[in-house]
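Notes to self after the Tuesday call (sharing in case useful).
The group wants a holo model before anyone commits to mutagenesis around the pocket. I volunteered. Ligand is hypoxanthine. Logging inputs and output together so the record is complete.
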Amino acid sequence: MDIETFVHGLPKTDLHMHLEGSIEPELMMTLARRNCVPLRWDTADALRAAYRFEDLQSFLDLYFEGCRVLVTQADFHDVTRAYLHRAHADGVVHAEMFIGPQSFTERGVPIKALMNGVLDAITDAQAAHGISASLLISVHRHRSEADAIAILDQIMPWRDQVVGVGMGGAERGNPPSRFANFYRMARERGFRTCVHAGEEGPAAYVREAVEVLAVDRIDHGNACLDDPDLVADLADSRIPLTVCPLSNLRLKVVTDLKQHPLKAMMAAGLHVTINSDDPPYFGGYVTENLLACREALDLSVEDLIDLVRNGIEAAFLAPDERLRLLTDLTHYVARQGYAEPHTLPSVLPG
Ligand code: HPA
Ligand code: ZN
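Result:
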């Protein structure tokens, strides 16, 4: 079996992806026509060609523009179904998907249309493909904390169907500590928590995410490497980092994948996972991210298995579900005869 087929077949997670950032250009054109939303591009190819970014903000400008095509419950259903179908085809067995309601509620889209569309599609995809998926609600850090708390209140009717909350948007100048009350309230209401930090922002923002917000996971986290004490703390606590290498390349967080800090993060004992972020915008789903890193950073098969196991361990899953996925991974690796016994996942099948 070649390495591409092996990585494709690994039972993978995608723990950091944004549903609004998963709209393939063809679907974007369809939704725009359906809702009579004017776009600046006439064809899917022209739209795809526009996916060239200078930094996070230049991406966010296009990403928020794309959000305008999502209007009805059926639109949210279609976009979620399309991503889960594509992720399943990519060998993803469990996805944790962000959606940021503020982009939609500010235009008058009822939160009920968004929640019901996404949640119904999760149920349908589980039945159709056996893929498991959870919903994470994210808020925008370039808006106020009061706006974020308002979203927290609005999602309470779906408390049991939302696994956690996160925060994205323009990072520089918007430190995590600005949202301390929002995160405290989210925790008190039983949500798991994560926050984008250390993508364009400094190591100090990653430290605030851990020390002030006390999050369960960090999204990106690359900049932590600038603070050796922080790295030691993160390694000790095993707080997972959801790293997105192709996103980092396309947003110029790194100039070349060969310069990506992934290998240094692994060597430092950090709990790193590989994720897609906004796949059509950045040119790859999880398998493509793993294979691109293998090529650029000369990762071993054992490194790739470790990264996939880290993803399962970092997922917001019940212990029995996590164990089932770890067992599937162990069986898959053993069946392919790729790994030496000492490199097999630590949880062996019962
Ligand atoms: N960073 C911040 N906000 C985002 C991202 C990201 O990578 N993707 C979608 N929203
Ligand atoms: Zn992201």
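Two things stood out.
The chain has a mean pLDDT of 96.
The pocket of zinc ion (ligand 2) is lined by residues 16, 18, 168, 196, 219, 277 (CB under 6 Å).
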